Amino acid sequence: MSRVQLALNVTDIDKAVEFYSKLFATEPAKRKPGYANFAIADPPLKLVLFEGPEGASLNHLGVETESAAEVEAAEARLSCNGIETTGIDDTICCYATKVETWVSDPDGAKWEWYVKTGDTDQLMATNS
User: Which of 41, 49, 43, 61 is nearest to 104 (CA)?
Assistant: First the structure.
């Protein structure tokens, strides 16, 4: 099995571990002072956290699902676990139509939980 590894810098390892444990419904596979890693089965991901003075500096991260029902279930699970979401939106982003919800980790890294429902020529939705 192959999976993507994502390594993030976080300012507070305890807050980050709490957040990512809830986000992915799994506990760390390894936890050391200033360090944690997760072997996440669904979606397949190796997530590594390093504590330091600089927090996440990525544009955003995402979990692509196969259906809107999966986005809705994730949003409900996250909300029930005390993670603030943007709610469920039908939107245009990244030249696609999507059903999505967004959350931010303790350092402000943005996560998009989404399903692509179509293609579009627009990068973002525009307000008319």
Answer: 61
CA pair distance 20, 79, nearest whole angstrom: 14
In terms of pTM, does the model score above 0.90?
Answer: no
How would residue 15 be classed by pLDDT, with cut points 50, 70 and 90?
very high
User: How far is Cα 16 from Cα 13, in angstroms, rounded to an integer?
Assistant: 5
Both tokens of residue 6? 């994502």
Return mean pLDDT, the chain.
Answer: 88
32: CB partners within 8 A, 6+ apart: none
Residue 101 CA from chain centroid, whole number: 10
Which residue's entry shows tokens 């909300």?
79
Which numeric CATH code is attached to 59-128?
3.10.180.10
Distance CA 118, CA 85 (A): 23
Where in the chain are the domains? 1-52, 59-128
Question: Is 91 in a helix, a strand, or coil?
Answer: strand
Tokens of 45: 């991901």
